[in-house]
Specification:
Blueprint (H helix, E strand, L loop, with lengths): L1 H24 L11 H11 L3 H17 L3 H21 L5 H17 L15
Helix pairs in contact: 1-3, 1-5, 3-4, 4-5
Length: about 130
Amino acid sequence: MKIASLIARYLLGLGFLIFGLNGFFHFIPQPPMPASLAKDYVTVLIASHYMLPVSALEVLAAILLLANRYVPLALTLLGPVLVNILIFHVTMQIEGLPLAAIFVVLWFLVFASVRSAFTGIFQSQVQN
């Protein structure tokens, strides 16, 4: 399990580093999207510059994962990003769902290796 979580951490970090940097430098060519809700949604996100801080968070979390520093923080930053990616692909662009699902599996593999850092948030009551 230790090797699987190490590989997952590197793959997750590398994936978010590449896609996060692509948010700034646009080096991965994107084919034109057909007219759809997905195109409208992405157009608004790009035009409003909403994706710039999201890309910055992705890059920051990726660096933390690759450096093996503050891994629980990196997972906390990536969690909401992954949820939004997953919801986008489930509801508007099903073609990208397999890659999104792979990233979710990688996230959970890394999470399993540092789950003790999250024990406090899974308590039903605060201990005084």
